Amino acid sequence: MELREKTLSQEYIYRGKILNLRRDLAELPNGKTAAREVVEHHGGVAVIAVTDEDDVLFVRQFRYPSGELLLEVPAGKLEAGEEPLPAAIRELHEETGAKAARIYELGWFYVSPGYTTERLYIYAADGLSFGAQALDEDEFLNVERMKFDDALKIALGEGFHDAKTDAAVLKLAHLRRCGMPEPVFGSCK
Fold first, then answer.
1. Which residues, 6 or more positions from 24, have their beta carbon under 8 angstroms from its beta carbon?
2. Comparing C-alpha atoms, which of 137, 139, 127 is closest to residue 57?
């Protein structure tokens, strides 16, 4: 059975700085039609950065939509047309002040494919050197460190309550056990 839906029309409800919202009319595989609400987003990057002492760099920040302070790996949104790797390098430096000697691509996933186009690209970084943060004027966060093993216990237990952080920690744990990919930035140790 064919599962794809065909877009019949699109109407933009809202266009914003971070996202757009549109309402589509789609033809279903059985020939009927259904409304589909879609949040368009340029995507984002997340970086799990690990020091030579096996500490993971986290940022603690208030997230307005959830109303909570969350502990997360450094992350940020892609600008229109921006490639993920340069964005990951930029976000790591802006949020933590860290620069990485090596960056590894850990893959990507749709944040919530039922309603948004947002793809999140995950990277790991090591060989860190530190300088000053370069936060955006509306960005307020604290950098915290945690041993990788402690971060893994949290991700395997109650979780960080942030999907990208749990995914980054769990994926890196698996790759450390089974073999890291070659760096996409920098050279091997």
1. 7, 8, 9, 10, 11, 35, 36, 37, 38
2. 127
Report d(CA 124, CA 50) in Å as an integer. Answer: 8
Burial class (CB in 10 A: 0-12, 13-18, 19+), 131: exposed
pLDDT value of residue 111: 96
pLDDT tens, position by position, 53-104: 999 999 999 999 999 999 999 999 999 899 999 999 999 999 999 999 999 9
> Residue 188: its pLDDT value, please?
63
Yes or no: say if 60 and 146 are a contact pair by the CB < 8 Å rule.
Answer: no
Say how many CA atoms lie within 13 Å of 11 toward its Cβ.
Answer: 6
Answer yes or no: are the C-beta atoms of 144 and 53 closer than 8 Å. no
| Active-site annotation holds for 137 | yes
> Which regions in the chain score pLDDT beneath 50?
none
* Domain boundary assignment for the chain: 6-40, 43-108+117-178
CATH number for region 43-108+117-178: 3.90.79.10
Do 12 and 21 contact (CB within 8 A), yes or no? yes
Selected catalytic residue, list 72, 83, 118, 137? 137
Report the DSSP pairing between strands 44-49 and 119-130.
parallel
